[in-house]
Amino acid sequence: MKFKLHCLSLAFLVAGMCHSINAQSIYKINDSKDIVMKLSGTSTLHDWVMKANTFTGKAQFNFQPQKGNLLASVGALNFSLVAENLKSDDEELDKNAYKALKTDEFKDISYMLVTSKVIRNKENKYLIQTLGNLTIAGVSRSIKMDVNCTVNEDSTISCIGSEKLKMSNYNVKPPTFMFGAMKTGDAITLDFILIYKKENTDIIN
Fold first, then answer.
1. CA 89, CA 197: separation in Å to the nearest integer?
2. pLDDT digits (tens, 9 = 90+) for 159-188
3. Which DSSP category does 35 fall into?
4. Considering only CA atoms, which of 54, 50, 56, 55 is closest in space to residue 38?
5. Are the C-beta atoms of residues 48 and 40 closer than 8 Å to each other?
6. Is-contact 189 47, C-beta < 8 A?
7. I want to staple 30 with a disulfide (CB 3.0 to 4.6 A). Which of 37, 116, 181, 195 is the partner?
8. Ramachandran region of residue 6, left (φ > 0), alpha (ψ -120 to 50) or beta?
């Protein structure tokens, strides 16, 4: 009798594990005009903004289909942006920004999730409290960031976030322009809108 109960418990455990695996889905950033990565800051003359609409990334979203397809956890999330894809309306600003970011040596700005906590706000909307590593100009720093995610009707997942940073924390010297007449501030803001589309059910390595 004990042996039968043990086998039955093991069967339920294996079934639960299989169910959990089936609920894990890999998503990649959808290539669309709606995605955007933005760096913005201030200067002695005017505020500035650099934007990019081309970048890559993947995420692992884990759902609970037995509970109405609720988002349960985020197992992985990353993105990578070629720094020189960031453009402003001022070519001189771009040129000096690339120099400050050392893009000849460090081409990408990247992020990799370390841990996360999912908080359901209402229906298909969630707050994801994240801890991850952001790498700029070859320097990685741990940052905490709140990301607002929406599970859309077409099964894509929109993620919106904003984080205040300091260039000096990444060994980036705030660039100057017009022979030093225009100086940028150390504080910058990273804003993004990411849209992830389901790719397959494999786990990110």
1. 31
2. 999 999 999 999 998 876 655 556 888 999
3. -
4. 50
5. yes
6. no
7. 195
8. alpha
